[in-house]
Amino acid sequence: MQLETDHFGTIEIDENEFIYFPEGIPGFEKSNRFVLIGNNAGEEVFYWLQSVDYPDLCFVVTDPFMVYDGYGVDVEDEDVELLEITDTNKVLTLTIVVIPENMDEIRVNLKAPIIINTEKKLGKQIIQQNDNLPIRYYLKS
Questions:
Q1: Tens of pLDDT along the chain (141 residues)?
Q2: Buried b / exposed e across 76-111, counting CB within 10 Å, b at 16+?
Q3: Environment class of 33 (CB within 10 Å of its CB; exposed 0-12, middle 13-18, buried 19+)
Q4: Residue 67 — φ and ψ, nearest 5°?
Q5: Total domain count for the chain?
Q6: 27: phi then psi, degrees, rounded to nearest 5
Q7: Which of 65, 13, 4, 2 minimizes the C-alpha distance to 36?
């Protein structure tokens, strides 16, 4: 299908690649369908989580395990059930990247990763209870 986006123009997307967020993403609950752009080769550091429902809604995301040593995620049983996770090898963990005007302040939110069941195409942003995980983890040291 043709998907109109503000950031990429018109792109061709396979509807089988849609990731459904039953609860939306906090602050953007009305957008339930997203597609991950730019992660096909597996070598990119940043990719985009583009809303299918809203052309202007797009998050830059990255793998938190690449940017923070010892990163771990706790997923409650109710979220495992919601996401229908049966195989942890079919789970993708991402974190939202904030890119301000001052590039020295680029940061990720390690406190609220996005968990995606890649097999079932289900996702959710899950707030972690670990108080040691920062909401603002600056990538430039």
A1: 999 999 889 999 999 999 999 999 999 999 999 999 986 655 678 999 999 999 999 999 999 999 999 999 999 999 999 999 999 999 999 999 999 999 889 999 999 999 999 999 999 999 999 888 989 999 875
A2: eeeeeebbebeeeeebbbbbbbbeeeeeeeebbbbb
A3: middle
A4: -110, -10
A5: 1
A6: 95, -15
A7: 13
CA distance 70 to 112: 16
Q: Where residue 65 sits, what CATH number does that domain have?
A: 2.30.290.10
CB-CB contact of 87 with 75 (8 Å): no
Amino acid at 56: D
Find the domain containing 34 and state its range: 2-138
Q: Six-digit token pair at 75? A: 């997923």
Using alpha carbons only, what angle is made at residue 34 by residues 66 and 31, rounded to the nearest 5 degrees?
120
The amino acid at residue 60 is V
